[in-house]
Amino acid sequence: MTAHLPAVPAATEASGAYRGRARRGDMAAIEDDFAEFVRVALPGLMRYGHALTGNPHDAADLVQTVLEKVGARWAKISRTCADPGAYVRRAMANTHVSRWRRTRRETLLADFPDVPAAARHDRLEDEPLWQALRGLPPRQRAVVVLRYYEGLSEAEIAEALGVSCGTVKSQASKALATLRKRLGALVEGGGV
């Protein structure tokens, strides 16, 4: 015994198939657009992440976490944001600050390891500027990195971090004062 299915007009069937292909085509275009954005922006995002976190491993984790979130919403972000790069940098700064607040710089271990891990020495670890920069609060560090490393204006930094221009100025002023204080002897002695 065979079951009879209602006949679907050919025009309806064809238009339904076309709509499905159009949606798949739109998704493919969105995915291609996001892949191109990542290809172009990734080196700068990794440098920015390294400056925010202080090491390349945490930077890679930060960039991956943010790009996963952004990739899931890329259609809306690319449609509504004038500068998706600024949006991603802001998301990185916010995610880094949130992660920092959660962990409070504590690493809890159940037991001490029997054999200490042989960590590779980061060549920037002993650089006074990197040590001083790493010692800044996350928001101040983000402002300094965006201003002097990425070369953004105060207005662009304010937009990227979601704060006012006044906040950017005050955070930059506090950060530079702290850096001058920490690096003053080196600057005066000609070590920098």
UniProtKB/TrEMBL annotation:
GO terms for biological process: DNA-templated transcription initiation. Residues 128-179 form the RNA polymerase sigma factor 70 region 4 type domain. Residues 41-105 form the RNA polymerase sigma-70 region domain. One of its GO terms (molecular function) is sigma factor activity. The keyword Aminoacyl-tRNA synthetase does not apply. The keyword DNA-binding applies. One of its GO terms (cellular component) is DNA-directed RNA polymerase complex. Keywords: DNA-binding, DNA-directed RNA polymerase, Sigma factor, Transcription, Transcription regulation. CDD domains: Sigma70_r4. It comes from the Bacteria. Coiled coil: none annotated. InterPro entries: RNA_pol_sigma-70-like (IPR039425), RNA_pol_sigma-70_dom (IPR014284), RNA_pol_sigma-E_actinobac (IPR014325), RNA_pol_sigma70_r2 (IPR007627), RNA_pol_sigma70_r4_t2 (IPR013249), RNA_pol_sigma_r2 (IPR013325), RNA_pol_sigma_r3/r4-like (IPR013324), WH-like_DNA-bd_sf (IPR036388). Belongs to the sigma-70 factor family. ECF subfamily. This is DNA-directed RNA polymerase sigma-70 factor.
